[in-house]
Every structure is written in C-alpha cells, then in structure tokens.
Amino acid sequence: MIFTAKEIAAKLQGTIEGDENASIHKLAKIEDGQPGSISFLANPKYNHFIYDSLATVVIVSDDFVAEHPVKPTLIRVKDAYGAFATLLELYNELQMNKKGISKNASIADTAKIGKDVYIGPQVVIGENVVIGDKSKIYPQTYVGDNSTVGSDTTLFSGVKVYADINIGSNCVIHSGVVLGADGFGFAPQADNNYRKIAQIGNVIIEDNVEIGANTCIDRATLGSTIVRKGVKLDNLIQIAHNVEIGENTVIAAQTGIAGSTKVGKNCMIAAQVGIIGHIQIGDGVKIAAQSGISATLKENAIVFGSPAFDARDYRRAYVHFRNLQKIVDRIDKLEKKLAEKS
C-alpha cells in the first residue's frame, strides 16, 4: 500500500516540512531508511543518521532542531516515538484486515459464524462451534466441536483448539498453540504400569488474552483450566490441567506450571520458571528467571533461586557464595592458629 506524507500527517495530527505528496510504502529504522520508507527520530543519540538518511519521510518531535540540511520530508508531532507506535498499529491493522471465508475451509453445518469473519484455507471448524464477529482464523487451524471463539479474536496458522474450549473476545492466539490437550493424569498400578485418567474438563480463555507460539494449555481433569482476562503468555509455556492464572498476569517463555496451582492477578513470572502443583501464588508476586517454586507464595513476594526464596536474601547469599573459597580459606587459617595455641 502506498500513502502520502499528507495522509500520514493527518492520521498523526502532525505538520509537514517538505513535500506533502511524498509517497511511502514501507517502514524502516532511521539508520536503514531507503527511498519509499518512513522512519522516526526520537532519541538524540540517533540525530546524526537523519542527515544522511535515504528515507523519504521521517517523523520527528516538535522540538527537533536540524543542525545540517535534511533531505527527507519531516512530519513534526508532539511525541515522535508515540506517533510512530500509532503508525505501527495502523500498519498492523491494515496488514491484518482480512475478511471472507475460503472455499477450501471445512465448516460444519451446525457451526455459527459471525459477521466480517476471516476463515483461511484448510481451516476445520467442528460441530456446534461459534465464531464471533470480526474474528480471524488463519490457514490450517482446527477448532473442535462445541468450542467458542469470541469477537475480534485472532487464531494464527496452525492453532489447534480441542473440543469444548471457550476463547473470549480480543484475544490473540499465535501459531502452534494447543488448547485443550489432555492433562498429564496417570495412576500407577500394581504391575508398575500407568492407567490413564480421563480428562473430561475444558479450557477457558477470557477476554484480552495473548498466547505466544507453541504454548500448550491442558484441559482440566474435571472443571476448567482458566486463563483470566488480560493475561499475556510468551512462547513455549506449559500450563497443566486445572491451573488458574489470575487477571493481567504476564509469564515469559519456557515456564511450566504443574496441575491445580492457582496463580494470582498482576503477577510477573520470568523465563524458565518451574512451579509445582497444588500451591497458591498470591497477587502481585514477582518470580525471577530460572526460579523453582515449591511452596505457596504470599501476595507481593519477590523471589529468586531454586528453590526460590526472597530476592534480597538471595542476592546477599550469592555474594557470599562467590567468595566461598576465600571464606573457607580464612576459616582453615583460624582453625590452624587455634590448634597451634592449644
């Protein structure tokens, strides 16, 4: 798509210095600008790039003062960084503005499809599925029987939604996500084999949730595995059966949460954290990367380590750990001196 500087300035409520008819068709960093691109300058450290930039248009803040001649057309705004963020959002909306149902999609007769929905090629929609208005289901995605997808929700290519799963509105589910696979439930038997326990619950994803690529959220044994509204999950996360994650909690990549654990709201869990099952993580808890959580955590706790404990105590202890050999040597010397005196 091609836009003029005038059209972009109107969207950003900016003023133009240069050619208002200058046309752009792509976005670029200020140091990588090429003809036909638009960039932005918000950090004074990068000011020098603008004088040699080949970008056609550059967004700058109102207080920018050029020390040398500038070739690109400028769009002056109150906040260059914020304006460019708005431009990125508009660009993304245009890129994602897909509608229509592919002839190569397989949709059950009992499914209910909302208005202005996009369903791509090789999508399979099961019996009694409900897809809300303006939602987008990208190619090779499967939505199982009796599942629901709210309005303005996007399921990217290759998402697998098992039967009886409820997904809210304004959610983003990235490629490779699996919602509703069986929880890890096996009962040991006398002959050392394991008997599979049927997992007949479901998964509930509330509104405004984003789930990163290749994350798996297991269905409950009974009841529901629940991800509350506003939660943001990174790539490669494992959420086990009957887990509940509270509102607006964020979890980074490669974290695993074992069955029936309840995570509070407004928590921040860093990457590669392991959390055992059947415990409570209070509201507002912060867990540092690679921590191992083996016991319930109270509200607003900040923990570090494996097994995890208070982050301040951990840092103090780590200082001593790094000096452990020196401390041992000092103790050895003291013991020798005491032995010589005795």
Task: Summarize the SSE layout with pairings.
Blueprint: E1 3-4, H1 5-12, E2 15-17, E3 23-24, E4 26-27, E5 37-41, H2 47-50, E6 57-61, E7 73-77, H3 80-95, E8 100-101, E9 106-107, E10 112-113, E11 118-119, E12 124-125, E13 130-131, E14 136-137, E15 142-143, E16 148-149, E17 154-155, E18 160-161, E19 166-167, E20 172-173, E21 178-179, E22 186-188, E23 194-196, E24 202-205, E25 210-211, E26 216-217, E27 224-227, E28 232-233, E29 238-239, E30 244-245, E31 250-251, E32 256-257, E33 262-263, E34 268-269, E35 274-275, E36 280-281, E37 286-287, E38 292-293, E39 302-305, E40 308-310, H4 311-322, H5 324-341
Parallel strand pairs: 4-5, 5-6, 6-7, 8-11, 9-12, 10-13, 11-14, 12-15, 13-16, 14-17, 15-18, 16-19, 17-20, 18-21, 19-24, 20-25, 21-26, 24-27, 25-28, 26-29, 27-30, 28-31, 29-32, 30-33, 31-34, 32-35, 33-36, 34-37, 35-38, 37-39
Antiparallel strand pairs: 1-3, 2-7, 22-23, 39-40
